[in-house]
């Protein structure tokens, strides 16, 4: 029942947004809906852990990897729904959003969540492609939501670059179907391809996977296919920026992992590993360079997302239980921490009416609650203890040193150190210092505060203790992906 409820709740809320979305009370209704969605996700996870066997149901395939990504999506979606209540109300007061446009936002918000959930739950790789293409089309409207010159330009850039990527992913999907057909198979179901992977032509599989990793890697924000990401994240409405960074990048990474499992069964781990390590380390290199030179607050966070996708890719590319556990723990921790940071950035930009970090000072005096949590989120992103990203990064580094990959470990340490210094430098100037006289102290709403507390609790708790059910789920995910 929870399986279908997970899809029906955002679908119902999207339809409701068309009918009553103009009402200022709809934000609360939407948040309650996502509280129910999170509850369904938790019940779904608990039911799976009682009998952790993969199963198919109609068009859907469910295993530990599916459960984990569903859980990440429902956690961040609930926080974003909470934060949206006060954020949109302030946008209305500042005459940036009308009641009609508020309903339009909630309609897109719910369709976006629905498409990402669908992508992680379908068995058919063709439907997976359709769902990820839907995320592009829906989120493009959230990027261009304000209809300014820069936001429209960013939306078009996002559409064009990601459409090229998704076309390459389609070619890869067609090639995988062709490879399967050579063995007598006529299905595009992942479960069928995975079972027959040992019979595939290795050279054709390698060729097909290059299209997949470049195509879906474009959506995942892996460098050098990342160029849409800084513009889109900086121009999107702030709750949508959190969804783009916290969820969309991971959904595309999910697709790469699914195909990676087939590739490894066919050609071995080395080919997949080398590609993931290459793109992961290059993403870290690009992020380190651009974070240093950033002036725009949301672009800074966008390049930080490229860094963390790179870290996750490196963890998956290293393989082995410790690296994989660290990579998936990092994925969850980053989804929570980056969402918190984009919420904080949204509050700061609303209060100061500017993006340029050089002209933002005294945040802790203008927005005391936001400033404190933004600072905590900053240290979490930088991999500082006791936050979960420190723990997951240490796991990945330990795995790299343990297998003798000293160059990879050294590169990780170098890039993370550079980015840590840049983040502290930029954020320190914004948070502290005198309050500009033209910027009065701003009011912070209760729902937004609850979203901050909810996300910070996750990254703090996971930094010192992984609850038993989540630990079991992560171990199951590692077992599922150990072929990688």
UniProtKB/TrEMBL annotation:
Annotated NADH-Ubiquinone oxidoreductase (complex I) chain 5 N-terminal domain ranges read: 60-93
Where the protein is mainly located, per its record?
membrane
Q: How does it sit in the membrane?
A: Multi-pass membrane protein
Q: Is Oxidoreductase a UniProt keyword of this protein?
A: yes
What residues form the membrane-spanning segments?
A: 59-83, 104-122, 128-146, 158-184, 204-224, 236-257, 269-293, 300-318, 324-345, 366-384, 404-425, 446-466
Record-linked InterPro entries: ComplexI-like_HydComp, ND/Mrp_TM, Proton_antipo_N
The places in or outside the cell where this protein is found are: Cell membrane; Membrane
Is the Membrane keyword given for this protein? yes
Entry's Gene Ontology molecular function annotations: oxidoreductase activity
> In its UniProt entry, what is this protein called?
NADH:quinone oxidoreductase/Mrp antiporter membrane subunit domain-containing protein
Species assigned in the record: candidate division WOR-1 bacterium RIFOXYC12_FULL_54_18
């Amino acid at each position: 029942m929870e399986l279908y409820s997970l899809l029906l709740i955002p679908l119902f809320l999207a339809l409701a947004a068309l009918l009553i979305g103009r009402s200022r009370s709809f934000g609360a209704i939407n948040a309650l809906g996502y509280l129910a969605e999170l509850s369904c996700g938790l019940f779904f996870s608990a039911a799976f852990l009682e009998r952790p066997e993969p199963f198919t149901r109609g068009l859907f395939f469910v295993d530990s990897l599916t459960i984990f990504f569903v859980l990440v999506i429902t956690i961040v979606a609930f926080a974003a729904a909470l934060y949206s209540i006060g954020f949109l109300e302030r946008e209305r007061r500042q005459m940036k959003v009308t009641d009609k446009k508020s309903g339009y936002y909630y309609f897109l918000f719910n369709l976006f969540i629905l498409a990402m959930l669908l992508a992680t739950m379908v068995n058919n790789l063709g439907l997976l492609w359709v769902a990820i293409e839907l995320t592009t089309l829906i989120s493009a409207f959230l990027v261009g939501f304000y209809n300014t010159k820069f936001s429209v330009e960013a939306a078009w850039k996002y559409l064009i670059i990601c459409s090229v990527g998704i076309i390459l992913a389609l070619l890869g999907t067609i090639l995988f179907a062709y490879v399967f057909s050579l063995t007598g198979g006529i299905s595009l179901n992942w479960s069928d391809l995975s079972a027959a992977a040992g019979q595939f032509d290795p050279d054709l599989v390698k060729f097909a996977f290059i299209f997949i990793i470049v195509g879906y890697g474009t959506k995942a924000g892996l460098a050098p296919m990342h160029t849409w990401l800084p513009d889109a994240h900086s121009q999107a409405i702030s709750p949508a920026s959190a969804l783009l960074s916290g969820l969309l990048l991971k959904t595309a990474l999910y697709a790469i992992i699914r195909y990676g499992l087939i590739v490894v069964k066919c050609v071995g781990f080395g080919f997949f590993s080398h590609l993931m390590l290459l793109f992961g380390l290059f993403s870290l290199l690009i992020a380190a360079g651009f974070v240093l030179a950033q002036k725009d607050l949301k672009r800074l966070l966008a390049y930080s997302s490229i860094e963390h996708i790179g870290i996750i890719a490196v963890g998956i590319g290293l393989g082995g239980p410790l690296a994989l556990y660290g990579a998936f723990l990092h994925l969850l921790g980053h989804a929570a921490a980056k969402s918190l940071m984009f919420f904080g950035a949204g509050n700061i930009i609303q209060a100061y009416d500017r993006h340029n970090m050089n002209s933002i000072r005294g945040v802790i005096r203008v927005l005391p609650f936001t400033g404190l949590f933004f600072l905590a989120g900053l240290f979490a992103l930088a991999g500082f203890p006791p936050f979960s990203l420190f723990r997951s990064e240490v796991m990945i580094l330990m795995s790299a040193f343990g297998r003798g990959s000293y160059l990879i470990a050294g590169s990780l340490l170098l890039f993370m150190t550079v980015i840590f210094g840049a983040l502290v430098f930029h954020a320190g100037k914004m948070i502290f210092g005198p309050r500009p006289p033209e910027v009065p102290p701003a009011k912070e709403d209760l729902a937004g505060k609850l979203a901050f507390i909810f996300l910070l609790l996750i990254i703090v708790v996971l930094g010192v203790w992984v609850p038993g059910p989540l630990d079991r789920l992560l171990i199951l995910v590692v077992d599922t992906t150990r072929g990688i």
